[in-house]
Request: fold
Amino acid sequence: MAKIIKIASHLPEEKITNEKLSFNLKNWSADKIYEKTGIKKRSKSKENETAADLAILAAEKVFKISDISKEEIDMLIFVTQTQNQCLPTSACEIHNSLGLKTECGAFDINQGCTGYIYGLFLANSLINNKSIKKVLLLTGDTYTKLLDPDNASVSTLFGDGASATIIVQEDTNSSIGSFEFGTDGSKSGLIKCDFAGFRKSIDNWGHLYMDGANVMTFTLSAIPKAIYSYLEKTNSELKDYEYVIFHQANKFILERLYKKLGIPEKGIIHLENCGNTVSSSIPLAMEEFTNRNNQNEVNILLVGFGVGLSWGITSVRL
Amino acid sequence: MSQDEENLFLIKFLDELGLESSITLDSSLDELGWDSLSVITAIAIFDEVYGKTLDVEKLNKCKTIRDILKLSEN
Reply:
């Protein structure tokens, strides 16, 4: 069985404030940006700083706060869509920077807002398969490098960041529940970026594009259905979870989703000072929750959704 | 749709978008400063009030608030 031991994160120091954004965006005051997104500032990586660099700093933090040493890690999983380069795999470079042992696997997962759920699924599966005992799951993205600063529908939302989670084999206690995934590839063009791909030539690469309206209709219709399907398959109800953490897309959509599911008091919102950090948004919210949680362990439902379009659901006990 | 239902929709619409109460169902969306956020808000209102998913293409063709309201009848 697999258990989450510790979570840590790293956010770049430089912040993009609403005041700074509103200077470039016609009809968007700083107050309006906050009111609609729930975000006050987003972190921005330096020009030569990559998602892997951020993930390395998050990893160093997680080793500092846990009893697990680097030598014990059997597998490194790095979830990112802003890799260092086409090849080699960024996880291999992180492996070297962290000084992990040679007998440790390392690979990337190209997934966005559902990425952390995929990472947990793989870590959990590898551990339950008894082939691996300790996994370092990293997430990291630098979406600010993909953005057109004049495109308000994306520049007001995304921030850079990374997280690190240590998951270990434990004989008696599992802290990770069942999983459910879904994909609607017919909507893959709704959130898209050409960078570092081969479909288009470099001269024709465009910034990150997001069809906010159609992503909204997808989210409001597909995600509640997926959650009810998960609850049915796991023979559970929403009341069995003390808290719910969705991918932190923006406050507007989170409030709608939590309200639609009738759980506004359980739904955690954590993006005011970091923005939408893509695959790191769920672990950032989990880290913040564990830092302030004085209760005994609680059950939390985790729901990722977005780029793909994809969704993934699991539960954890923290 | 009854007059009361129309009025309730209008009130919710104005409230969610932070618009003045003098605006009517037949006010032009362009004059209201209609933007991408307004579209997303309209989708959310429809989902909440009617339990329906708005067709974004049809929504983008609407000229007035009443045009949007009519989409609830489809």
Q: What stands out?
A: The interface with chain B takes residues 27, 36, 152-153, 211-214, 216-217, 220-221, 252-253, 256, 259-260 of chain A (CB under 8 Å). The first helix of chain A runs from residue 18 to 24.
